[in-house]
Write a structure and sequence with these properties.
Layout lengths: L7 H12 L2 H6 L4 E9 L2 H6 L3 H12 L13 H8 L13 H10 L1 H8 L3 E9 L2 E8 L9 E6 H8 L5 H6 L4 E4 L1 H6 L1 H12 L6
Parallel strand pairs: 1-4
Antiparallel strand pairs: 1-2, 2-3, 4-5
């Protein structure tokens, strides 16, 4: 079944697919460590958000952050983006009128893009000896001590998620920035490749 990216459904599907794969468990048996993916919202993100389904998925991911943690968004570019969309951190984002908001983005793309400068969607994933233990949306400042941090534009992450490019090529080309122990990463390339292959195997609704 195809799912929207980004969305909670995509995260759930990735979690299930990886944990159900015996080959992944085997090749990742020695892996220890977590990832923080910083998906920088760009022009392509705002084009995709003109699709109410994609916008609903994005807002649903933000809505999964407990309200007490949303205080971390105060004064950040992500809060400014929500305000430009007519939303607040205190609102129930999953109940937003996505059709109206998508229309607003389509009518004011430059204004919304300016408001989105510096905004990101942060996704934290935790792996331990073949187990994919957790995946969640992180608030600003959370999980900054992750073993690895992968940073880049939404458009590039979308290529990775859809299997149009692999992680190593994107990092080597500079399209994604990787922070962390590169030696450890290179010693565990089979784990990285298997995970990204599983991620790319999830059909994405377009």
């Amino acid at each position: 079944m195809a799912v929207v990216f980004p969305s909670k459904e995509w995260m759930e599907e990735l979690y299930k697919k990886v944990n159900a794969d015996e080959e992944y468990r085997r090749v990742a048996a020695n892996w220890e460590g977590d990832y923080l993916c910083v998906v920088e919202l760009d022009e392509e993100a705002l084009r995709d958000f003109q699709n109410p389904k994609v916008l609903r998925g994005f807002l649903g991911m933000l809505d999964s952050i407990p309200k007490e943690k949303r205080e971390r968004f105060r004064g950040t570019p992500s809060e400014k983006l929500l305000e430009a969309l007519g939303l607040s951190l205190d609102s129930d984002l999953s109940d937003a009128n996505v059709e109206e908001i998508a229309k607003k983005i389509a009518e004011n793309p430059d204004k919304i893009l300016e408001a989105a400068k510096g905004a990101s969607l942060n996704i934290w994933m935790d792996f331990w000896h073949g187990d994919f233990r957790n995946i969640e949306v992180a608030a600003p400042g959370e999980h900054e001590d992750a073993k690895f941090k992968l940073i880049g534009p939404y458009a590039v992450f979308k290529q990775l998620v859809m299997g149009k490019a692999d992680a190593i090529t994107l990092v080597v080309s500079g399209k994604l920035k990787l922070q962390g122990d590169m030696g450890y990463m290179m010693r565990n390339m089979a784990t990285v490749k298997k995970f990204t292959d599983l991620m790319a195997s999830i059909p994405i609704e377009t």
